[in-house]
Amino acid sequence: MTATDTAPVVVPSFDDAVDSGRKLAIICSKGNLDMAYPGLILANAAVGEGVETHMFFTFWGFDIITRATMADLKFSFVGNTAMHPPGHSGMGIHHMLGALPGATAAATKMMKKQIADLDVPDVPEFLELLSGSGVHMWACRMSADMNHVTEDDLYEGVEGIISASDFIELTDGAQLLFI
How many of the other CB atoms lie within 10 Å of CB of 93? Predict the structure, then answer.
């Protein structure tokens, strides 16, 4: 027997997937345009770092994953206390601007252009990217029942409609973000 006969066989792994042992659970509860992107961007960053990533869409967050609404999310000045028109430091003017006819459409168009200018995909394309990267997407059972939504109504990358308890079990030990 020679030394080469007893040497362990080394088989290199060329998998791109890196399992860091970390988990991230993102709860997406709001479906307006400016609240959809934080969850999508954080999920993309996490999965890119090898973090097992789960997203749970509930209440208005369903708009992000519902086929009928996901490509047409809106942004509005109204109710957004952090939104200040350029060059104005007053706190009430954005509410007045939001009441003008066409303000929501104009604000949405402006935000979508700014997002596209940064080469960030639109919501349906972003969902496709995340699903293809291994992000697990779940829909809330209670929200689905309240709104009479079935899996057929949802983006195909959603793995299922599950209860909050099931989501807690699936993401045991995960870092949790509520958006």
Answer: 14
pTM over the 0.85 mark: no
Strand order in the sheet with 23-28: 158-162, 136-140, 52-57, 23-28, 175-178
Which of 87, 19, 4 minimizes the C-alpha distance to 53? 19
The residues near 166 (Cβ < 8 Å, ≥ 6 apart) are 138, 141
Query: pLDDT of 89-126, one tens digit each?
Result: 554 444 445 556 677 788 778 887 888 888 889 999 99
pLDDT in tens, 50-99: 999 999 999 999 999 999 999 999 887 665 555 555 444 554 444 445 55
Long-range CB contacts (within 8 A, 24+) of 112-118: 112/33, 115/37
The two structure tokens encoding residue 170: 């699936």
Q: CA torsion 151→154→158→164, rounded to 10°?
A: -70
Residues 6+ apart with CB under 8 A from 135: 43, 44, 47, 53, 54, 55
